[in-house]
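Our preliminary data section would be incomplete without showing what the modeling component actually yields. Below, a chain of 291 amino acids is followed by its predicted structure, encoded as C-alpha coordinates that our downstream tools consume directly.
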Amino acid sequence: MSKWNLIINVGRCENCYNCVIANRDEHVGNDFPGYAAPAAAVGESPIRILRRTQGSAPMVETTYLPVMCNHCDDAPCIRRAGDAIRKRDDGIVIIDPVKARGRKDIVRSCPYGAIVWNEEQQAPQTWFFDAHLLDQGWDRPRCQQSCPTDVFEVLKLDDAEMKKTAETEGLKVLKPNLGTNPRVWYRGLERWETCFVGGSVSADLDGRVECVEAAEVTLSQGSTVLARTVTDGFGDFRFNKLAGDGSTYRIAVSHALGGVWRDCVLSESVYLGELRLAPHSTTDLRGGADA
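Predicted structure:
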Protein backbone atom coordinates (compact mmCIF):
# COMPACT_ATOMS: atom_id res chain seq x y z
CA MET A 1 0.00 0.00 0.00
CA SER A 2 1.23 3.51 -0.79
CA LYS A 3 2.08 5.64 2.22
CA TRP A 4 2.96 9.28 2.73
CA ASN A 5 6.58 10.33 3.17
CA LEU A 6 8.17 13.77 3.42
CA ILE A 7 11.65 14.63 2.14
CA ILE A 8 13.36 17.74 3.54
CA ASN A 9 16.17 19.21 1.46
CA VAL A 10 18.76 20.45 3.94
CA GLY A 11 20.64 23.45 2.58
CA ARG A 12 17.64 24.94 0.79
CA CYS A 13 16.00 26.27 3.94
CA GLU A 14 16.61 30.01 4.36
CA ASN A 15 14.71 30.41 7.63
CA CYS A 16 11.87 32.38 6.00
CA TYR A 17 9.40 30.70 8.39
CA ASN A 18 6.75 30.39 5.67
CA CYS A 19 6.14 26.76 6.70
CA VAL A 20 5.63 27.75 10.34
CA ILE A 21 3.35 30.66 9.41
CA ALA A 22 1.33 28.54 6.95
CA ASN A 23 0.85 25.86 9.58
CA ARG A 24 -0.36 28.40 12.13
CA ASP A 25 -2.60 30.03 9.55
CA GLU A 26 -4.19 26.65 8.87
CA HIS A 27 -4.68 25.57 12.47
CA VAL A 28 -4.87 28.48 14.92
CA GLY A 29 -8.52 28.93 15.79
CA ASN A 30 -9.68 26.29 13.29
CA ASP A 31 -11.29 23.10 14.52
CA PHE A 32 -10.87 19.95 12.41
CA PRO A 33 -12.90 17.24 14.18
CA GLY A 34 -11.24 13.85 14.07
CA TYR A 35 -7.89 15.42 13.19
CA ALA A 36 -7.09 18.16 15.71
CA ALA A 37 -8.63 20.77 17.99
CA PRO A 38 -7.85 24.43 17.23
CA ALA A 39 -4.20 25.29 17.75
CA ALA A 40 -3.38 27.89 20.37
CA ALA A 41 -2.62 31.44 19.23
CA VAL A 42 0.26 31.56 21.70
CA GLY A 43 2.57 28.62 22.22
CA GLU A 44 5.18 26.43 20.64
CA SER A 45 4.72 25.55 16.99
CA PRO A 46 4.69 21.86 15.94
CA ILE A 47 6.95 22.86 13.02
CA ARG A 48 10.27 24.30 14.19
CA ILE A 49 13.38 25.58 12.42
CA LEU A 50 16.63 24.65 14.16
CA ARG A 51 19.84 26.56 13.40
CA ARG A 52 23.48 25.52 13.38
CA THR A 53 26.30 28.00 12.73
CA GLN A 54 29.76 26.62 12.02
CA GLY A 55 33.23 28.04 11.58
CA SER A 56 34.33 31.63 12.12
CA ALA A 57 34.68 34.74 10.00
CA PRO A 58 35.23 34.85 7.11
CA MET A 59 34.44 31.13 6.65
CA VAL A 60 31.05 30.73 8.29
CA GLU A 61 28.21 28.38 7.35
CA THR A 62 24.69 28.50 8.78
CA THR A 63 22.34 25.58 8.28
CA TYR A 64 18.62 25.59 9.04
CA LEU A 65 16.83 22.33 9.79
CA PRO A 66 13.02 22.08 9.74
CA VAL A 67 11.77 19.50 12.24
CA MET A 68 8.28 18.20 12.95
CA CYS A 69 6.41 14.97 13.68
CA ASN A 70 8.23 12.12 11.94
CA HIS A 71 5.13 9.90 11.61
CA CYS A 72 7.20 6.98 12.83
CA ASP A 73 6.15 3.45 11.95
CA ASP A 74 7.25 2.35 15.43
CA ALA A 75 6.19 5.50 17.28
CA PRO A 76 6.94 5.71 21.03
CA CYS A 77 3.99 8.08 21.43
CA ILE A 78 1.57 5.38 20.27
CA ARG A 79 2.98 2.88 22.74
CA ARG A 80 2.48 5.46 25.48
CA ALA A 81 -0.91 6.81 24.47
CA GLY A 82 -2.85 3.67 23.59
CA ASP A 83 -6.00 4.49 21.62
CA ALA A 84 -5.41 8.25 22.05
CA ILE A 85 -3.08 8.10 19.03
CA ARG A 86 -3.58 6.07 15.88
CA LYS A 87 -1.45 5.18 12.89
CA ARG A 88 -3.38 5.32 9.64
CA ASP A 89 -2.88 2.81 6.86
CA ASP A 90 -1.32 5.59 4.75
CA GLY A 91 1.41 6.11 7.38
CA ILE A 92 0.09 9.27 9.03
CA VAL A 93 0.01 9.51 12.82
CA ILE A 94 -3.03 11.26 14.32
CA ILE A 95 -3.40 12.35 17.94
CA ASP A 96 -7.11 12.06 18.75
CA PRO A 97 -8.22 15.54 19.89
CA VAL A 98 -10.82 14.07 22.28
CA LYS A 99 -9.17 10.93 23.68
CA ALA A 100 -5.84 12.71 24.23
CA ARG A 101 -7.32 15.61 26.18
CA GLY A 102 -5.51 16.06 29.50
CA ARG A 103 -2.72 13.65 28.49
CA LYS A 104 0.33 15.86 29.02
CA ASP A 105 2.39 12.69 29.43
CA ILE A 106 2.09 12.14 25.66
CA VAL A 107 4.24 15.25 25.06
CA ARG A 108 7.14 13.66 26.92
CA SER A 109 6.84 10.37 25.02
CA CYS A 110 8.29 11.79 21.76
CA PRO A 111 12.11 11.49 21.67
CA TYR A 112 12.21 14.16 18.92
CA GLY A 113 10.33 16.78 20.93
CA ALA A 114 7.77 17.01 18.12
CA ILE A 115 4.62 17.04 20.29
CA VAL A 116 3.56 20.37 21.82
CA TRP A 117 1.12 21.09 24.61
CA ASN A 118 -1.91 23.23 23.83
CA GLU A 119 -2.70 24.97 27.10
CA GLU A 120 -5.99 26.36 25.79
CA GLN A 121 -7.29 22.95 24.77
CA GLN A 122 -5.40 21.01 27.44
CA ALA A 123 -4.29 18.60 24.75
CA PRO A 124 -1.10 17.39 23.05
CA GLN A 125 -0.79 18.34 19.38
CA THR A 126 1.62 17.77 16.54
CA TRP A 127 2.02 18.29 12.80
CA PHE A 128 -0.36 15.69 11.39
CA PHE A 129 0.79 15.98 7.77
CA ASP A 130 -2.25 18.16 7.01
CA ALA A 131 -4.16 14.92 6.61
CA HIS A 132 -7.44 16.86 6.54
CA LEU A 133 -6.30 18.48 3.28
CA LEU A 134 -4.84 15.32 1.76
CA ASP A 135 -8.14 13.57 2.46
CA GLN A 136 -9.87 16.31 0.45
CA GLY A 137 -7.63 15.64 -2.56
CA TRP A 138 -4.65 17.91 -1.93
CA ASP A 139 -1.36 16.42 -3.14
CA ARG A 140 0.84 18.28 -0.66
CA PRO A 141 0.67 19.79 2.85
CA ARG A 142 0.72 23.53 3.52
CA CYS A 143 4.42 23.56 4.39
CA GLN A 144 5.33 22.41 0.89
CA GLN A 145 2.72 24.57 -0.79
CA SER A 146 4.06 27.71 0.92
CA CYS A 147 7.83 27.09 0.67
CA PRO A 148 9.60 29.39 -1.85
CA THR A 149 12.82 27.36 -2.02
CA ASP A 150 11.40 23.83 -2.44
CA VAL A 151 12.64 22.55 0.90
CA PHE A 152 9.79 20.02 1.17
CA GLU A 153 8.93 17.17 -1.16
CA VAL A 154 6.05 14.77 -0.53
CA LEU A 155 6.09 11.23 -1.90
CA LYS A 156 3.39 8.59 -1.65
CA LEU A 157 5.04 5.23 -2.23
CA ASP A 158 4.88 1.72 -0.84
CA ASP A 159 7.56 0.86 1.70
CA ALA A 160 9.74 -1.08 -0.75
CA GLU A 161 9.78 1.80 -3.23
CA MET A 162 10.54 4.31 -0.51
CA LYS A 163 13.39 2.21 0.83
CA LYS A 164 14.89 1.99 -2.66
CA THR A 165 14.48 5.75 -3.14
CA ALA A 166 16.18 6.44 0.18
CA GLU A 167 19.12 4.20 -0.69
CA THR A 168 19.50 5.61 -4.21
CA GLU A 169 19.32 9.26 -3.15
CA GLY A 170 21.21 8.94 0.14
CA LEU A 171 18.24 10.01 2.27
CA LYS A 172 18.60 9.80 6.05
CA VAL A 173 16.36 10.11 9.09
CA LEU A 174 16.96 11.87 12.38
CA LYS A 175 18.33 9.75 15.23
CA PRO A 176 18.25 6.39 13.41
CA ASN A 177 19.62 4.75 16.56
CA LEU A 178 16.17 5.11 18.15
CA GLY A 179 14.73 2.55 15.75
CA THR A 180 11.43 4.44 15.36
CA ASN A 181 11.39 4.17 11.53
CA PRO A 182 10.42 7.78 10.67
CA ARG A 183 8.58 8.70 7.48
CA VAL A 184 10.26 12.13 7.35
CA TRP A 185 13.54 11.91 5.42
CA TYR A 186 16.41 14.36 4.95
CA ARG A 187 18.48 14.93 1.83
CA GLY A 188 21.93 16.36 2.62
CA LEU A 189 21.68 15.77 6.37
CA GLU A 190 25.48 15.54 6.55
CA ARG A 191 25.53 19.34 6.38
CA TRP A 192 23.81 19.32 9.78
CA GLU A 193 25.66 16.37 11.27
CA THR A 194 29.27 16.83 10.15
CA CYS A 195 32.01 19.45 10.34
CA PHE A 196 34.47 21.19 8.05
CA VAL A 197 38.00 22.49 8.35
CA GLY A 198 39.28 25.28 6.15
CA GLY A 199 41.80 28.05 5.88
CA SER A 200 43.40 30.68 3.68
CA VAL A 201 46.85 30.30 2.14
CA SER A 202 49.09 33.32 1.54
CA ALA A 203 52.71 34.14 0.76
CA ASP A 204 55.08 37.08 1.22
CA LEU A 205 56.03 38.30 -2.27
CA ASP A 206 58.54 41.14 -2.32
CA GLY A 207 57.13 42.62 0.85
CA ARG A 208 53.49 42.14 -0.16
CA VAL A 209 51.19 39.49 1.29
CA GLU A 210 49.27 37.82 -1.54
CA CYS A 211 46.66 35.06 -1.74
CA VAL A 212 48.03 31.86 -3.25
CA GLU A 213 45.90 30.10 -5.83
CA ALA A 214 46.28 26.44 -6.81
CA ALA A 215 48.30 25.43 -3.76
CA GLU A 216 47.89 21.72 -3.03
CA VAL A 217 46.31 21.02 0.36
CA THR A 218 46.31 17.57 1.98
CA LEU A 219 44.15 16.35 4.85
CA SER A 220 45.59 13.43 6.80
CA GLN A 221 45.45 11.48 10.03
CA GLY A 222 48.74 9.95 11.03
CA SER A 223 50.25 8.49 7.88
CA THR A 224 46.89 8.17 6.10
CA VAL A 225 45.94 10.78 3.51
CA LEU A 226 42.17 11.32 3.64
CA ALA A 227 41.63 13.96 0.97
CA ARG A 228 43.33 16.48 -1.28
CA THR A 229 42.20 19.79 -2.72
CA VAL A 230 43.65 23.02 -4.14
CA THR A 231 43.15 26.61 -3.05
CA ASP A 232 40.83 28.86 -5.03
CA GLY A 233 41.48 32.35 -6.39
CA PHE A 234 41.25 33.80 -2.89
CA GLY A 235 43.68 31.28 -1.45
CA ASP A 236 40.87 29.48 0.40
CA PHE A 237 40.44 25.75 0.87
CA ARG A 238 37.96 23.60 2.74
CA PHE A 239 37.38 19.94 3.60
CA ASN A 240 33.77 18.93 4.30
CA LYS A 241 31.86 16.00 5.80
CA LEU A 242 34.24 15.36 8.69
CA ALA A 243 33.17 13.81 11.98
CA GLY A 244 33.28 16.22 14.90
CA ASP A 245 34.42 13.52 17.29
CA GLY A 246 37.57 15.14 18.66
CA SER A 247 39.90 13.52 16.13
CA THR A 248 43.20 15.19 15.24
CA TYR A 249 43.85 16.10 11.61
CA ARG A 250 46.89 17.52 9.85
CA ILE A 251 46.54 20.09 7.10
CA ALA A 252 49.62 20.32 4.87
CA VAL A 253 50.01 22.92 2.11
CA SER A 254 52.50 22.66 -0.73
CA HIS A 255 53.28 25.15 -3.51
CA ALA A 256 56.25 26.32 -5.56
CA LEU A 257 56.49 29.28 -3.16
CA GLY A 258 56.83 27.05 -0.11
CA GLY A 259 54.83 24.99 2.36
CA VAL A 260 53.15 25.06 5.74
CA TRP A 261 51.18 22.69 8.00
CA ARG A 262 48.79 22.87 10.91
CA ASP A 263 47.31 20.30 13.27
CA CYS A 264 43.77 20.72 14.54
CA VAL A 265 41.44 18.85 16.88
CA LEU A 266 37.99 18.77 15.33
CA SER A 267 34.98 18.80 17.65
CA GLU A 268 33.28 21.64 15.78
CA SER A 269 33.99 23.17 12.39
CA VAL A 270 37.28 25.09 12.30
CA TYR A 271 38.57 27.98 10.23
CA LEU A 272 42.35 27.87 10.66
CA GLY A 273 42.84 31.44 9.53
CA GLU A 274 45.80 32.50 7.41
CA LEU A 275 48.45 29.90 6.63
CA ARG A 276 51.53 31.77 5.41
CA LEU A 277 53.84 29.79 3.13
CA ALA A 278 57.50 29.54 4.00
CA PRO A 279 60.41 28.28 1.85
CA HIS A 280 60.38 24.47 1.80
CA SER A 281 63.59 24.23 3.80
CA THR A 282 61.88 25.87 6.78
CA THR A 283 58.40 24.42 6.41
CA ASP A 284 58.57 22.53 9.72
CA LEU A 285 59.22 25.78 11.56
CA ARG A 286 55.89 27.11 10.34
CA GLY A 287 53.72 24.36 11.78
CA GLY A 288 51.20 25.16 14.45
CA ALA A 289 49.67 23.81 17.63
CA ASP A 290 46.12 22.55 17.92
CA ALA A 291 43.53 24.96 16.52
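DSSP finds seven helices and 17 strands in the chain. The first strand starts at residue 3 and ends at 9. Preliminary results of this kind motivate Aim 1 of the renewal.
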